[in-house]
Structures are given as structure tokens and as C-alpha cells.
Amino acid sequence: MSNAKVLDGRRTAAELRAAIGVKVRDLQGECRRVPGLAVVLVGDDPASKVYVGQKEKACREAGIRSFLHHLPASTSTSTLTELLEDINKDPDVHGMLVQLPIPGHIDWTEAVRSIDVRKDVDGTHPLNLGRLVMGLDTVEPCTPRGVMYLLKKYGIDLSGKRAVVLGRSNIVGKPMAQLLLAADATVTVCHSKSIDIETMTREADIIIAAIGRPEFLKASMVKPGCVVVDVGISRLDGGLVGDVDFQDVSRVASWITPVPGGVGPMTIAMLLQNTLERYLELECA
Ligand code: NAP
Fold it and tell me: Architecture of domain 33-117 in CATH?
């Protein structure tokens, strides 16, 4: 029997995208250009191609121009950096991102530093991540921002709550932990070297799973009434699967996000929101 109520990312994201579309239309006439987002895809990872296609479609529907730059998998760090520097100078582009993952030979820490910090819609430039850690105004990475938006939308209070984040990547786990901390949660971050993860998850009031391990989180690892957010996406033969065993964990959680239809759509909606905010700063200030 399922107890958990669903945090409906699909519906929340659709409402947000529609509101962004209205705002973009209203701004025309006030500002000179249409908002523009550049996406750089390196290589031919099939999942990345799907995500890039979803981003282009969402942009189109919201009235945002999208520019796709597709580079071969053999691209060097310097070629990628040169392209990013060219995009920095393009006045029609207000937000830019490189679709991750990128091929392993590329030095991502070097490439990301060449993105104009004001156009960094993924919030992964070291300056933006540093500002996030310091609690300063910044560009919040899309996925963690989407999770926070969803939790707020459903009235889930975080102050004083024990939160466990599974995963410590720069794009999801670490910024997620910072945003939870900023919302006054007490945060534990677990990773592949963490020992006895169940003991930590069983004490959590809220769990954010972002490790890319299909159905890793089981009901036996979750305290009754816990809020469970599943960021993970794995593509298996049967379709998309999250890091949470949805059926099992639904028996004990109070709230849960499905996969698909949870965090994924929120990430795209937040990408549009970040693009709009970059546009307002660059174009209309
Ligand atoms: P990532 O860069 O590969 O990081 C994975 C993290 O999980 C690492 O910190 C790793 O630990 C940790 N980890 C791996 N196996 C573990 C285990 N058995 N126990 C505990 N920790 C473990 O991945 P990511 O970019 O953060 O993405 C994570 C997942 O979210 C993926 O499935 C990805 O597809 C999905 N994702 C979804 C969205 C969305 O919009 N829904 C957006 C972005 C990503 P170490 O640091 O020790 O290696």
C-alpha cells in the first residue's frame, strides 16, 4: 500500500514554463533582443542528445532562442574553450552551458572557467559556486534549484530538519547541500566512500538521492514520514529508473518524486528561469 503523496514535478514545471513564456513575451518591446540560450554538446552520448532536444523544445515554447553547438567527441580542451569564448562575445546569447558528461580527456575545470560568469546558466563556474557557498547572490544550478522550488511549492519546511544528500557532484550533490543548508536544514552528504549509509538515511527527515544507481534507496533505509526526492536517472531496458525504489519507498515516505515526472522537468524549467534572469541582467538592466 502506498502512503506517500507525489511531488508532481511535471505539473509544477509546466506551470513555471508557462509563466516564463508570458514574461518573455511581455518583455518584448522593453528590451532589444529576444532571450537566447547556447548549448554545447560534445560527442554523441544518446542520453545527452535527448536532454539537449528537450531543452531546445522548452526554449522554443517559452519564446527563448536556442543555439546548439555540436562538437565531435575528439574535441580538445582548447577547442572547447575557444568556442566558449566566442559564445561569450555573442550578444544574442544570454545564457550558455555545456551538456555534461563530456569526454574524459577534456579538462572540465579549465573549460568551465572560460564561460562568462554572467552567462553561466548552469551555475557551475567556480565564482558562482563560490558565491553559493558564501550565501551570496548567485546563479543556482538548475537541478538543485528545481528541487528547492518543488519542496517550497508543496510547503515542505526544511528549517531544523535532518537532510541527507546522496552524491557530491559539483552540479547536483554539493550545490544541493548548500541550498539545504541555506534553508536551515542540518545536512549530511554521502558518497561512494561513505560507510553505513543506511544509518544516516534512516535518521533523515528528507533524502535527496543523486548517485545514478538504479533503485538504490529501499524502504528499509527510510524513516517513516521522510520526504524523498529522486534526482537519479538511469536508462534501463524497461525505461527510465531513478535512484529510489519508488514502489517500495512509497510505503513509508510522506512525499516522493517519481521518475520520470519529478526532478527532470524541474531542471529544464529552472534552466529557462536562469536564462531569463541572465537576460534581464545583461539586456534590460
Ligand atoms: P556524478 O557526477 O556521476 O556523481 C555521482 C555521485 O554519486 C558521486 O558523488 C559518487 O561518489 C556518488 N555515488 C556513486 N555511487 C554511490 C553509491 N553506491 N553510494 C553512495 N554514493 C555513490 O553524477 P551527477 O551528475 O551528480 O548525477 C547523479 C544522478 O542524477 C545521475 O543519475 C544523473 O543522470 C542524474 N541527474 C539528473 C538530473 C535531473 O534533471 N533529474 C540532472 C542531473 C543529473 P564519489 O564522489 O565518491 O564518486
Answer: 3-Layer(aba) Sandwich (3.40)
